[in-house]
Amino acid sequence: MAKTSTVERNKKRRRMVKSAAPKRAKLKAIIMDRDTPDEERYAAVVKLSQVPRNSSKVRIRNRCELTGRPRATYRKFKMARNKLREYASKGMIPGMVKSSW
């Protein structure tokens, strides 16, 4: 089990990304548009740098929803490999069966 503080920090980042996404997208559009004046683009860069870093999508870590494990996590199930195997063996994941050949 991962530390509770790291799991909560990641949840906080997800909330921040969701709330700041429109503002960040608007500023990035201004920055990327070559037709806008340089002063306006520079002002957008300054505003973007003042937005909290944790509101950036790349700072989110994919973690297991059950254990908080940061590695070997399947995006589709939001579970780590070991918990996915455990739940699949118990038949708790619909449509997933143990492979045998």
Write structural notes for this entry.
- The chain is mainly alpha-helical.
- The chain has helices at residues 4-32, 38-50, 81-90; strands spanning 73-74, 79-80.
- A two-stranded antiparallel ribbon has the order 1-2.
- Helix 1 packs antiparallel against helix 2 (38-50).
- The model has no long low-confidence stretch (mean pLDDT 92).
Chain-wise SSE layout:
Elements: H1 4-32, H2 38-50, E1 73-74, E2 79-80, H3 81-90
Antiparallel strand pairs: 1-2
Helix pairs in contact: 1-2
Class derived from helix and strand content? mainly alpha
- Examine the coordinates and then state which fold CATH places here, giving the name of the CATH topology of the largest domain: Helix Hairpins
Shape: elongated
CATH 2nd-level architecture of the largest domain:
Orthogonal Bundle
Q: How many domain regions?
A: 2
* Amino- and carboxy-terminal Cα gap: 33 Å
Can you tell me the residue ranges where pLDDT is under 50 for at least 5 consecutive residues? none
Please outline the major beta sheet.
2 strands, antiparallel
- Secondary structure: number of strands: 2
The main sheet orders its strands as 1-2
Strand content: under 5%
What string, H for helix and E for strand, traces the elements in order?
HHEEH
Cα-based radius of gyration, to the nearest Å: 20 Å
